[in-house]
Amino acid sequence: MKFSNDYTRPETQPRHSETPKNITPYRPDGNQNINIRIVYAGKNFAFPTDEAGVVTQKIGDAQEAIGMKPWVSSETPHDVLGGQVSDGKSNYTGPTSILPYEVQSPVTYDKQDGFGVRSPVKHTDERWSGMVPDLDVMNNVSLRINRDLKRVDVSCAITGDGFPNCESFIIDGSSKVLFLASHVRTGTAVAQLPGNRQIPMSNTSLDVDWQPDDSFGAAVNVRVVVDFTGAGAANDLGIGAKTREAWNALHTKRNPYGSYSQRVREHIPLPQSQWVDDRINNNPDMVDYVRKARAAAGRWFDGDGEWWAGED
Predict the structure, then answer these.
(1) Which residue windows does the record flag with biased composition (Basic and acidic residues) (predicted)?
(2) Does the N-terminal or the C-terminal CB of the chain have fewer CB atoms within 10 Å?
(3) Tens digit of pLDDT for each residue in 115-125?
(4) What is the mean pLDDT of residues 278-299?
């Protein structure tokens, strides 16, 4: 079975909107404001459906040829796994997920009561069609251009599921790139994707030189740059004056793997402890072993290595 990323099929393409979007009229010698909200939702994963889709399409064509209404198509396998809708608790009123339950740690701990025990499975009223929930990400971006001072103030706030990794950047008319934010994934898909959670992912505030030809300059002053990664704690990436190239490199050279301790904790009942986190995250031999074992299993399962055989 071939696991591949085919984003040409309509059912694999994400739902995308840029509403509201407000851009004030251009003034060569004055201020201009840009405010935009970019919303992404979808499940364009590498589902193992390409070959199965060919078979179901032939069945549907045969049904249509004898006058029957086709009840399967090339989209059917993807619909079974991915479904069409994933709105958490919002507007979807159809059937709940196939398994309306979620997994939780059977061991609890707090400073007042100490350790406790609870059911590892709980009922949930989160709703999505298919077997896999959507990725949900919302990016609010604001730019205030001051052509007199030759500066542009930029803010970016990203919320969503927290998984997987996420980047936001702008390319101006001269093909110059300005990174707005980067987010290293929180936990794992099983625990992070269900529901339209809208947890904080990244928050950035900066100003950058603005050139007379309406392009980004070389100097950036970063006031706030926070990534809510690991267990969801704020991670300050570094404020202050930088070149635009150094600012961009701060994001492009980040370790993309995220906190191993948080990912382990979502499947194994470990207590919330900095000592435990340090023992897991600061053990390169353990992390390297896990990555190599996963890659080996992936290559055995999928010879092409296109779905999950990467080292992380």
Answers:
(1) 8-19
(2) N
(3) 888 877 776 65
(4) 69
